[in-house]
Amino acid sequence: MLPPGADHFRKAIEELTPLSDEQFAEVLARFELRRFSKKECLWSSGDVCRMIGFVTKGCLRYFFTDNKGEERIMYFATEGWWIADLNSLYSGKPSLYTLQALEDCELLLSTGEKFEEACSAVPPFGEFYGKKTRRSYSASVQRFADMQSESAEEKYLKLLKNYPQILQRVPQHYIASYLGIKPQSLSRIRKQVKGK
Amino acid sequence: MLPPGADHFRKAIEELTPLSDEQFAEVLARFELRRFSKKECLWSSGDVCRMIGFVTKGCLRYFFTDNKGEERIMYFATEGWWIADLNSLYSGKPSLYTLQALEDCELLLSTGEKFEEACSAVPPFGEFYGKKTRRSYSASVQRFADMQSESAEEKYLKLLKNYPQILQRVPQHYIASYLGIKPQSLSRIRKQVKGK
DNA sequence: CGCGGGTTTGATGATGCTCAAGCCCGGTGG
DNA sequence: CCACCGGGCTTGAGCATCATCAAACCCGCG
User: Fold this and answer.
1) Does residue A141 sit in the same domain as residue A154?
2) Mean pLDDT score of chain B, rounded to an integer?
3) Which domain-ending residue is among B140, B158, B183?
4) Do A13 and A80 share a structural domain?
5) Chain B window 84-113, residues with Cβ within 7 A of nucleic strand C
6) Which burial class, exposed, middle or buried, applies to A20 when counting CB atoms under 10 A from its CB (0-12, 13-18, 19+)?
């Protein structure tokens, strides 16, 4: 019996690397379905991150607290996203980030060890992981580039265009944090945009 | 006969994964020493990036042109840095970035294919590549976090503290671009800082 | 009905940009 | 050897964007 979301999980892997049924079963066996309720933290800053996983249901925020004491959201993880703090996971050092459920969530979770097992037991999955990491890295660099060169309004419009679903399910002040501005500023930008 | 910088190259790899002499030779055989003179571009935006390499001498800038036509420097690559546009290298799509020598440079360069060969011929090197990519990814996320939460002056002071050598060898207006500000603003910040 | 978190709105302020001029200094040609 | 040129750095004045402080508003919930 497959856990709910296993099909989505498989598709997400096979977008980069195809797997046989047995190979997929080998991978899936290293993951466990876990549910989290709204506001629950999968880990918090100061904890060591010991998990790596895939969101099958719900929405989470990955954030840190800056040196002025402000929470800053790096990204929202919704269905189809992978989550982990690779730095903490591999180094065993405390994470600077917190991953918190914004809704009731379901994830397929693995540990560092089991995930490593899956990579060596199923070489195409190891391949997938390598590709995925490189893509995420490139995306991170690209986002850095965009963030620097765009105004708050441009960033908001781009979010509106690329991830309209996010805006439907996440409170404004979290969107503001994600965009790197204050809720008041986002409110003004929205008024501005609406008038056009 | 080893090319100049091969020892540095080996050390950089072995910081993450030890190699036997033969293994290192296998890897090195897939790289070629190339020299570039000041202002030369290893590739330019619009080109497909077909190289991956290691800087043994000199200093380069990795930059793109934003939607306002301004060049923005993502990083400086000096001795000990790896360079590539992984996105372009693997997808075969044109790069958005340009890599230009700021001084006469020497690099150990490989192609996508030869590099791939090295990874499979020498498993510890494949391991190294995986670790290195994960680290770069984490560093990129961290830099994004810092860039958002710090003022221009804080960013400048952090650069001054962490990479004072860069400031010695790179013109101010490039530093400004790296920090995401205009040369005029950097000039004012420097005056400000000096007065303290 | 009243509380409380989230959003909106207004007034003011800080940071960094734009436009513009001047300065410093190394390189070139007379 | 000196005058001139040009790029890069500095400085000044005014401006745009976003932050801050503060108050009002909205609305779901106890």
Assistant:
1) no
2) 95
3) B140
4) yes
5) none
6) exposed
- The residue whose two tokens read 């400000």 is B192
pLDDT average, residue stretch B67-86: 96
Q: Give the list of residues 6+ apart from residue A196 with CB closer than 8 angstroms, or none.
A: none
Is residue A1, in this structure, part of any structural domain at all? Answer: no
Q: Which residues pair with A63 in a beta bridge?
A: A73, A98
| Four-residue CA torsion sign, B93, B98, B104, B108 | negative
Number of domains in chain A: 2
Range of the domain at B136: 6-140
Q: How confident is the model at residue B164 (pLDDT cuts 50, 70, 90)?
A: very high
CA distance B169 to A7: 54
Q: Do A141 and B74 touch (CB under 8 A)?
A: yes
Q: Could you give the 3-state DSSP secondary structure of residue B184?
A: helix
pTM: 0.94
Residue type, B135: R
Amino acid identity for residue B38 in this structure:
K
Residues A155 and A124 in one domain: no
In total, the C-beta contacts within 8 angstroms joining chain A to chain B are: 80
Residues B125 and B163 occupy one common structural domain: no
Structural element, H or E, at residue A129: helix A123-149
pLDDT in tens, B100-139: 999 999 999 999 999 999 999 999 999 999 999 999 999 9
The distance (Å) linking the CA of B125 with the C1' of C28 is: 52
> Which single residue is written with the structure tokens 């995420």?
A136
Residues A149-175 have a mean pLDDT of 95
- Spatial CA neighbour of B42 closest among B82, B1, B70: B82
Q: Which residue type sits at B180?
A: G
Decide if B41 is inside a domain.
Answer: yes
- Does residue B128 sit in the same domain as residue B186? no
A185 sits within 7 Å of strand D by its CB: yes
> Among residues A151, A164, A17, which one has the least CA distance to residue B68?
A151
B68 close to A (CB below 8 A): yes
Whether A68 contacts chain B with CB within 8 A: yes
Provide, in whole angstroms, the distance separating residue B148's CA from nucleotide C17's C1': 18
Beta strands in chain A (DSSP E): 32-36, 41-43, 51-57, 59-65, 71-78, 82-83, 98-101, 105-111
Chain B residues in contact with A90 (beta carbon < 8 A):
131, 134
